Amino acid sequence: MTNQTVEGDAGYGIDIPEPGPTTPDDYVEGYEMEPQQEDPDSESGLMATFSGAELIGTIVVLLSVVAIYAGFRRRV
Predict the structure, then answer these.
(1) Is the dihedral of CA 61, 63, 69, 75 positive or negative?
(2) 45 contacts 38 by C-beta, under 8 angstroms
(3) Model pLDDT for residues 11-38, shown as the tens digit of each residue
(4) Longest dimension (CA), the chain
């Protein structure tokens, strides 16, 4: 068994060329935004829209504030 040196094309000190960009620099992937047309007959702009979760959350917060206020009034 002998100590032998093998020469190759890779290793420390060998410059490896970096791959070039495959896409242009200004390329952006995704959907294009389109302007939304408003219907002049629609009255949705005048009405506030609330979801069920917002309504329930508001009620819970108001009931909590009333309960805290009643607790302080009762203690005094």
Answers:
(1) negative
(2) yes
(3) 676 677 777 667 777 778 888 888 887 7
(4) 96
